[in-house]
Specification:
It is a single chain. The protein is of the alpha+beta class and 162 residues long. It has one domain. The protein contains five helices and four strands; from the N terminus they run ααββββααα. It has a four-stranded antiparallel β-sheet with strand order 1-2-3-4. The longest helix is centred in the first third of the chain and has 18 residues. The protein is globular, with a radius of gyration of 21 Å.
Amino acid sequence: MNRYVLPFLGAGVVLALAVGFVLKRAEDVPVQIDPELALAIIPAIEAQAFTSRDGKVFCSDETLMVTEEKVFVWALCEEFVLADGNLETGSAFSMPFAVHFVKDESGFRVGRIEPPEDGGNYAASVRRLFPKELHDRILHQDVPVEALQADVKEKATAHFGL
């Protein structure tokens, strides 16, 4: 290799390392969302849930992105029942949603909620419903599922007084 190229390569590596330590991945930066809107999303998603054991559904979500008219979230919802003094689970889902909203004089209202399709149409519907910046994250399920599960269980435990 040319002796004049090596110093430039070395400087490039040092610069790349320095930038790598300063910059964060986009998913590491918390998404800013209006607190009023954030509070409206969970009940709207809980209304989409179903129960298999006639229990109570609790949801938690991770905001992935906010635009002028939509909030993109990953939600985990789980049904809980109290059986013989123990908390047991029923139906559950963990999936992304495109949440349409409007803001008027009374505040935020959640409109249409769009989950991706099931099965073979899942990837195509993710690409249709969600911004390109989220495709890889959603398709690889790069979300804090364990934290969402812990939050949901904490809500259920508090609700049932355990």
